[in-house]
Write a structure and sequence with these properties.
heterodimer, A: 396 residues, alpha+beta, Aldehyde Oxidoreductase, domain 4, 2 domains, seven-stranded mixed sheet, 29% strand, globular, B: 161 residues, Ubiquitin-like (UB roll), DNA polymerase, domain 1, five-stranded mixed sheet
Chain lengths: 396, 161
């Protein structure tokens, strides 16, 4: 491409309009996304998902599904190793391995409508779909807790029996996974100095990243203990380390081949189908392809948090913001780990304010476990603080 | 198990025979039976347009059509747009206008756009936007796609031209 710049400098690249290097494959349909891979003898997998937002799983019977012609394997949480309550680096956000594994396949409790309960591999996606209907799950349906207010209310149903936070200590069951606080100066004194004080409450809904390409994974397990995963992902190495942890096999025995990705926006920085594809391949001796349909993507993969923010800001007549306070509670979904820590950092970050108090809460609710969504947590936070700054700017 | 049927159709100008079960969609046939993975699966409910193909000159969501319904019909997919290594003007204009990022929606947009230009060689911008309304894109914001189709129409991309 010729450089066509004006001015005194001639640049080799800046100012040119290069054709993207992956463009021709994409406009001819030759580019290979995760779902485009196929291998000889490949089976198709499907995941059975909870229809209940909150339920104890009393039993899972898979024998009828296994008897259906064409079904080669059925797996549940019992087929995965138990992982310790340990934090690992997972893409943009830290991850608790035990919770991650429970999100991949439920252990004794369905935490949201869409939570994976079992997975099957069969000779066609249609047979796999039929097999799901033959899996018998006995649920004890529990009252769902859908908002941060309901989850934080005294006497709220406890969603994760082992969840504790540092503040409340080891003996208090809670739905609040974490309380983060940022403090500077004295907000009471600061507000007393302000000529204008504006306080507002904001509610935001969970929003899905909405990538056009659903999640996918093709897993190939070799009898020598090595596995290969083909998938669309934002982080090949994260898929490897998290899948290795969930499956209980050494990282060095997994090779992850990143396919072209049909959009991620943060939502494909974690794993859902990848370890299942390897597990089913291990059980069947065949490559296994798993994909989600759109309904599954929206029910069961991580959106960004909805939640509540109460924000108060005070400014003097000469335009200086002297005090600001924020109370933020974000939905983590069925397992802890909302982006509220980053939201707490971002909400007042652009401003030079001498007196600050931010209290932020990571709250478990019966919704899909949240995942990163471009500028995790900060968009909701900015909505709150910037709305108030706008009002302050025209206050008089 | 449903017994498979032999279906005969013309795909990208070639007479083709394939075997499929009655319950398999045309999208599934293209991708899993014929290995033509250019048409993409985005929703399986006909809402996103990523699976768009052209049937007898008309843009259709292949996820909403059964493979057996293809019998005797003419099917065009993204794989048939280029002539060897010579890109179709629509493909060329998409590249020049940066009308794609992740590219998953691109085959569907190209087929919807071709269906439009084959019937309406010089559409207005509004006509283009309406014709492409059944295709969703999460990356580009649509403007560059519309621009590419406009440019392609000016460069004589229409079959009817």
């Amino acid at each position: 491409m010729a450089a066509t710049t004006e001015g005194t400098h001639q640049f080799r690249v800046i100012g040119t309009r290069p054709i993207r290097h992956d463009g021709v494959e994409k406009v001819t349909g030759a580019a290979r996304y995760g779902a485009d891979y196929s291998f000889p003898g490949m089976l198709y997998g499907r995941v059975l998902r909870s229809p209940h937002a909150h339920a104890n799983i009393k039993s899972i019977k898979t024998d009828k599904a296994l008897k259906l012609a064409g079904v080669k394997a059925v797996v549940t949480g019992a087929d995965l190793p138990e992982l310790p309550d340990r934090i690992e680096q997972g893409g943009e956000l830290p991850i608790n391995l035990h919770h991650l594994s429970c999100n991949i396949l439920a252990r004794g409790k369905a935490m949201y409508d869409g939570h994976a309960i079992a997975a099957v591999a069969a000779t066609s996606p249609h047979i796999a779909e039929e097999a799901l209907r033959l899996i018998e799950v006995e649920y004890e349906v529990l009252p769902p807790v859908m908002t941060v207010e309901d989850a934080m209310a005294p006497g709220a149903p406890i969603l994760l029996s082992s969840l504790r936070n540092k503040e409340d200590g080891p003996d208090k069951q809670t739905n609040v996974a974490a309380h983060i606080q940022f403090k500077r100066g004295d907000v009471k004194e600061g507000f007393a100095k302000a000529d204008y004080v504006i306080e507002r409450s904001f509610k935001s809904a969970m929003v899905h990243q909405g990538y056009i390409e659903p999640h996918n994974a093709v897993g190939i397990y070799n009898s020598d203990g090595h596995a290969t995963i083909y998938c669309s992902t934002q982080g090949t190495f994260v898929v490897r380390s998290l899948s290795a942890a969930v499956l209980g096999i050494p990282e060095g025995k997994i090779r992850v081949v990143p396919a072209e990705i049909g959009g991620g926006f943060g939502g494909k920085t974690t794993i859902y189908l990848e370890p299942l594809s390897v597990l089913l391949s291990q059980k069947t001796g065949h490559p296994v392809k798993l994909t989600m349909n759109r309904a599954e993507v929206l029910r069961a993969t991580g959106p960004t948090s909805g939640g509540t923010i109460r924000c108060k800001m005070g400014a003097t007549k000469d335009g200086k913001i002297v005090a600001a306070e924020a109370w933020m509670a974000y939905e983590a979904g069925g397992f802890p780990g909302s982006p509220v820590p980053m939201a707490a950092m971002c909400i007042l970050a652009p401003y030079d304010i001498p007196n600050i108090l931010v209290d932020a809460y990571d709250v478990v609710v019966n919704r899909p476990k949240t995942a990163a969504y471009r500028a995790p947590g900060a968009t909701n936070a900015a909505f709150a603080s910037e709305t108030i700054v706008n009002e302050l700017a025209s206050a008089s | 198990m449903d017994h498979k049927t032999v279906v005969e159709a013309t795909i990208n100008g070639e007479r083709t025979e394939f075997l499929c079960e009655p319950r398999q969609s045309l999208l599934e046939v293209l991708r899993d039976v014929l290995g033509m993975t250019g048409s993409k699966e985005g929703c399986l409910t006909g809402d996103c347009g990523a699976c768009s193909v052209i049937i007898d000159g008309r843009a259709v969501c292949s996820c909403l059509m059964l493979g057996v319904e293809a019998e005797g019909h003419k099917i065009e997919t993204v794989e048939g747009l280029a002539q060897g290594s010579k890109l179709h003007p629509l493909q060329q204009k998409f590249l020049e206008n940066a009308s794609l990022q992740c590219g998953i929606c691109t085959p569907g947009f190209l087929m919807s756009a071709k269906a439009l230009l084959d019937h309406n060689p010089h559409p207005s911008e509004a006509e283009i936007r309406y014709a492409l309304a059944g295709n969703l894109c999460r990356c580009t914001g649509y403007d560059k796609i519309v621009h590419a189709v406009l440019e392609a129409s000016k460069s004589g991309a229409s079959k009817a031209a």
